[in-house]
Input
Amino acid sequence: MRIPTITTFLAFTGTCLSALLLLTSCSWKSAPEAGLDDLSIRFQAANQALSIEPMLALYCLTGCDTLMTSRLKGALAYELGLPIGKIQFEGLSGAAEETIEFSYNGIAYGPSLEPRYRMRVIYDVEDGFTSIFTVGQNNHGEWQIICAKPKPPLKY
Output
């Protein structure tokens, strides 16, 4: 019978510690916040509608000007009716397009809601076309897609 030595004990402990660190470093996908699944279902239903109105209803258009609304309609018309393969929600990555902060023709724009998640829509088409939307929660707790709205002018 072999008596364990301190070297054997340390090797065993080191192996167990390494395995434990490896397991705890894995990032498990967290469950989406309440209501995001509902947004996914509403998006799929709006995508199959005969008009663009149900899709527009998913957006927080409060404060948006007619320029942004008409551009949004044009973009949505292209994707409306495409078969959806999968919708997934992701944490924000810090990418510039997620903040929805920009200037156009001297007008500063910002988000219609505070950005909270990205919604990735992967269409079930040959080229794997994907759209990414930024979503936030309105004052009633409902998840909506964010659009750009003009910021009020600075007052000095």
Q: What stands out?
A: The chain has a mean pLDDT of 82.
